[in-house]
């Protein structure tokens, strides 16, 4: 009897596993067609000379690592620094503001009303297209736009300030738009992590005399550390892939003086000029850099967690 039952359970387990693999087939087929094959194709094309010269098509001719040398001998480091600076200018205030809002919204002692309404409001900018956001900011901060008019009317400025010709003003506008678009999404993610913490931990800490700052630093932050790792890595990848906002705001030129030219804008220039070899080489570099940074960030931020588990 017992043997028959074990055999039935085993048969059912094999059946479940089979259906699990069947349901995974669409994902793997989609990944194979739209991700894996293009990835291999990009690596392949990065070793070939393949571009348009007027109406004449040159290549594809195998050139080895010449495309990579050309990329590194150019202004790649400048575009990397631009991307990092703009990302950090948006991410640092974003994570601080999102953490504060997440803690505020999830604090049961405050008994806040209409939290659902405020959550919806802060998330709404994430639903707006980046192109619309860029055009809005371009109109607001243009030389004769509303912002300049307001600042001049209140006496803060004597003459129009040309935001689009100032390096840090343009970078500030781009990072500000990224902040406005994504802080709501980050707040919701952090809230989900904080709401998963056992409330008895907060109550015990409060009874022991811990103040709000100590509870935040000793309980909240360590507990939601995996969520913070996820937010940091996804934001970093998003920062490396920054394109639409600076592309539209600066008309694809990275003005002033290419100080807002990001890596993907640089890649898009090669695609626009149909220099597929250099575009492939730059794509491979971006892939490698993103992978290394993601692994390094993950290893660094999970180091303490791994040690604690090992100690147990």
UniProtKB/TrEMBL annotation:
<dbReference type="GO" id="GO:0005886">
    <property type="term" value="C:plasma membrane"/>
</dbReference>
<dbReference type="InterPro" id="IPR051393">
    <property type="entry name" value="ABC_transporter_permease"/>
</dbReference>
<comment type="similarity">
    <text>Belongs to the binding-protein-dependent transport system permease family.</text>
</comment>
<protein>
    <submittedName>
        <fullName>Carbohydrate ABC transporter membrane protein 1, CUT1 family</fullName>
    </submittedName>
</protein>
<feature type="transmembrane region" description="Helical">
    <location>
        <begin position="223"/>
        <end position="243"/>
    </location>
</feature>
<feature type="transmembrane region" description="Helical">
    <location>
        <begin position="21"/>
        <end position="44"/>
    </location>
</feature>
<dbReference type="Pfam" id="PF00528">
    <property type="entry name" value="BPD_transp_1"/>
</dbReference>
<keyword id="KW-1133">Transmembrane helix</keyword>
<feature type="transmembrane region" description="Helical">
    <location>
        <begin position="276"/>
        <end position="299"/>
    </location>
</feature>
<feature type="transmembrane region" description="Helical">
    <location>
        <begin position="179"/>
        <end position="202"/>
    </location>
</feature>
<keyword id="KW-0812">Transmembrane</keyword>
<keyword id="KW-0472">Membrane</keyword>
<keyword id="KW-0813">Transport</keyword>
<feature type="transmembrane region" description="Helical">
    <location>
        <begin position="117"/>
        <end position="141"/>
    </location>
</feature>
<feature type="transmembrane region" description="Helical">
    <location>
        <begin position="84"/>
        <end position="105"/>
    </location>
</feature>
<feature type="domain" description="ABC transmembrane type-1">
    <location>
        <begin position="80"/>
        <end position="297"/>
    </location>
</feature>
<dbReference type="GO" id="GO:0055085">
    <property type="term" value="P:transmembrane transport"/>
</dbReference>
<dbReference type="InterPro" id="IPR000515">
    <property type="entry name" value="MetI-like"/>
</dbReference>
<dbReference type="InterPro" id="IPR035906">
    <property type="entry name" value="MetI-like_sf"/>
</dbReference>
<keyword id="KW-1003">Cell membrane</keyword>
């Amino acid at each position: 009897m017992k043997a028959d039952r074990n055999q039935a359970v085993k048969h059912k387990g094999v059946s479940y596993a089979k259906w699990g693999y069947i349901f995974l087939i669409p994902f793997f087929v989609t990944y194979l067609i739209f991700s894996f094959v293009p990835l291999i194709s990009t690596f392949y094309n990065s070793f070939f000379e393949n571009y348009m010269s007027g109406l004449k098509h040159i290549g594809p001719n195998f050139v080895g690592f010449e495309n990579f040398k050309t990329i590194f001998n150019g202004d790649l480091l400048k575009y990397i620094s631009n991307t990092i600076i703009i990302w950090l200018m948006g991410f640092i205030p974003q994570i601080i503001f999102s953490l504060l809002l997440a803690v505020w919204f999830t604090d049961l002692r405050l008994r806040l009303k209409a939290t659902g309404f405020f959550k919806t409001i802060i998330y709404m900018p994430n639903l707006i297209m980046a192109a619309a956001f860029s055009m809005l900011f371009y109109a607001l901060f243009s030389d004769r736009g509303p912002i300049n008019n307001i600042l001049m009317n209140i006496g803060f400025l004597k003459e129009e300030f040309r935001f689009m010709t100032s390096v840090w003003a343009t970078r500030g506008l781009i990072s500000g738009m990224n902040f406005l678009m994504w802080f709501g999404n980050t707040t919701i993610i952090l809230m989900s992590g904080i709401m998963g913490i056992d409330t008895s931990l907060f109550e015990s800490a409060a009874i022991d005399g811990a103040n709000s700052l100590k509870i935040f630093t000793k309980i909240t932050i360590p507990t939601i550390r995996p969520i913070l790792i996820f937010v940091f890595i996804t934001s970093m990848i998003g920062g490396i892939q920054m394109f639409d906002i600076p592309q539209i705001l600066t008309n694809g030129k990275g003005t002033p003086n290419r100080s807002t030219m990001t890596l993907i804008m640089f890649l898009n220039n090669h695609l626009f000029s149909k220099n597929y070899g250099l575009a492939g080489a730059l794509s491979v570099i971006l892939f490698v850099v993103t992978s290394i940074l993601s692994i390094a960030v993950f290893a660094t931020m999970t180091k303490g967690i791994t040690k604690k588990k090992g100690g147990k």
